[in-house]
Design goal:
The protein is 40% helix and 18% strand. By secondary structure, it is α/β, with parallel strands linked by helices. Helix 2 (52-58) packs across helix 11 and helix 4 (95-103) packs across helix 13. The termini are far apart.
């Protein structure tokens, strides 16, 4: 297979070209300048799971703004690419992936954090209990399965490998494979891959089945942090600032709701949402939900949550020219929780 870096670069370049073609076209739900603002947001969901916007809508936190599900997504880069090209109105991804798309001149802005890692919710790098893999050097020549390339799992893995003393040439010998999250555990147990990157409820369900253990986690490596944010296109924000504010406020309130409710209450609500939306899904995953992992109150974005990955991407040679500044990629101006505020 082609090295992930080249494949990712081609994808980002293609998306940037598409953005140029679609930037002036607007989108189906956009309001014209001076007209009524968008009352419906097209988004992509996740099989068997409930996103924070879906939870916010069910709790009544989005006000008059409605969500329109247009399908499911397996990885953040594809989700924000769909937003950048106008196929959806809002999408979410790992902050490093957002940096790369923004550096390719895609007119997008991150507005609220939606996932992260803490002591309860994290991404783990799992091996079978009889695996000889113990440390970074043991991964040379091995296969690692993750939900998507060029995003959170790859960035964290390469950070761990570099800190473990591997040279860039040795890091390239670790083979990265993109796998649907629901199939990654099975691929590990069938020994099709040597390491599986598992997170959230999918991870907890796999751990409950036994026979696997971590070699490290992103929380152990980096501590608690918000890892991904939702983005809108800049033209959408300009035309629909109140819609964006309603979305950010609703997601922020949903983050605080799950932070303060008993876990059983959150799980029951998510199971009910899955049942009502009628997508023929298995609701068993939500039983393993523990936390959103979001570090900032109400999803407020911290500068280092972009700065860390700007530095990493620059060191990897992924950014050409001047480094983008975090403040040019994200904004907290729509979030009522910024500076200690509340919704």
């Amino acid at each position: 297979m082609s090295p992930p870096r080249r494949a990712i670069s081609r994808t980002v370049a293609a998306v940037a070209a598409l953005v140029v073609l679609t930037a002036t076209a607007g989108c189906g739900g956009d309001a014209a300048a001076g007209g009524a603002q968008a009352a419906e947001l097209r988004y992509q969901g996740s099989v068997g799971q409930v996103t924070l916007p879906e939870l916010a809508a069910d709790l009544g936190y989005l006000g008059d703004v409605k969500l329109k599900w247009i399908g499911n997504v397996t990885g953040g880069p594809q989700d924000i690419q769909a937003t950048a090209t106008g196929q959806s109105d809002v999408g979410g991804a790992f902050n490093g992936a957002i940096v790369k798309l923004a550096a390719a001149n895609a007119p997008i802005t991150a507005v609220v954090s939606y996932y992260g890692s803490d002591a309860q919710t994290f991404q783990g790098y799992y091996v079978l209990d009889d695996s000889p893999i113990r440390g970074p050097r043991d991964l040379i020549g091995k296969k690692v399965g993750m939900n998507t390339l060029g995003a959170h799992a790859e960035a964290v893995l390469k950070t761990w490998l570099a800190r473990g003393g591997l040279t860039p040439a040795e890091v390239k010998q670790v083979e990265l494979l993109a796998l649907p999250p629901v199939n990654t555990e099975q691929s590990l147990r069938q020994r099709q891959i040597d390491v599986a990157v598992l997170g959230g409820v999918i991870r907890d369900k796999a751990v409950a089945s036994g026979g696997i253990h971590t070699i490290f986690t992103d929380y152990e490596l980096l501590g608690a942090f918000s890892g991904g944010t939702y983005v809108f296109r800049d033209d959408f924000i300009k035309r629909n600032p109140e819609t964006v504010k309603a979305f950010v406020t609703g997601v922020g309130k949903a983050i605080e709701w799950v932070r303060t409710q008993p876990r059983e209450t959150v799980v029951a609500r998510m199971r009910d949402i899955i049942g009502k939306r009628g997508r023929n899904e298995d609701p068993s995953l939500v039983a393993y939900w523990k936390s959103s992992g979001v570090a900032g109150r109400g999803g407020v974005i911290a500068e280092q949550e972009f700065g860390t990955w700007i530095d990493w991407l620059a060191a990897e040679g992924e950014l050409k020219g001047d480094r983008p500044k975090p403040g040019d990629i994200y904004t907290n101006r729509f979030n009522p929780f910024v500076d200690g505020g509340s919704a």
